[in-house]
């Protein structure tokens, strides 16, 4: 299981899970590879981050497709960021394993995508969130990973 999924989203829900299903035993192990559900294993389920194309498995979407644009309140005011078009003047924080995130978002919002792949790259969303909070740039991150921070107001959605 990815720690960046477990810590902010899954772990806060474990108490409720245990109270609801006390007979279920959970083990959290290092993510090694996609599991082949056609061969017997010593587990009944796995949480995997991917498109869910696994033979012999019943995949069910949990969470993670919904994204939020995030930045610090100071950066939002300094640029200023009031509309999606204002992103053309911002440093776009990039997830190196999701290189088309900004391009896809900009296309969906009718914006010019020519600068969508420029900006500092990170390999973890948690680093993008921290960089956005510090005012380093604007991030696009799965909303489930930043819900608590959004409620606290750091980072925040600029528009």
Element layout with pairings:
Layout: H1 3-10, H2 14-20, E1 67-70, H3 73-78, E2 92-95, H4 101-108, E3 121-122, H5 125-133, E4 138-142, H6 147-152
Parallel strand pairs: 2-3, 2-4
Antiparallel strand pairs: 1-4
Question: What features would you describe in this structure?
Answer:
It is a single chain. This protein is an alpha/beta fold and 159 residues long. The protein is built from six helices and four strands, in the order ααβαβαβαβα. It has helices spanning 3-10, 14-20, 73-78, 101-108, 125-133, 147-152; strands at 67-70, 92-95, 121-122, 138-142. Strands 1-4-2-3 form a four-stranded mixed beta sheet, covered by helices on one side. β2, α4 (101-108) and β3 form a beta-alpha-beta unit. The protein starts with a helix and ends in a 7-residue tail after the last helix.
Summarize the structure.
It contains six helices and four strands, in the order ααβαβαβαβα. It has helices at 3-10, 14-20, 73-78, 101-108, 125-133, 147-152, and strands at residues 67-70, 92-95, 121-122, 138-142.
Keywords:
single chain, 159 residues, alpha/beta, four-stranded mixed beta sheet, 28% helix, elongated
Rg is 18 Å
The ordered H/E elements are HHEHEHEHEH
Structural class: alpha/beta
Overall spatial form: elongated
* Strand portion: 5-15%
| Main sheet summary | 4 strands, mixed
Helix percentage range: 25-40%
| Mean pLDDT rating | 87
Strand order of the largest sheet: 1-4-2-3
Number of strands: 4
**Uncertain stretches:** none
Number of helices: 6
The CA-CA distance between the termini, in Å, is 32 Å
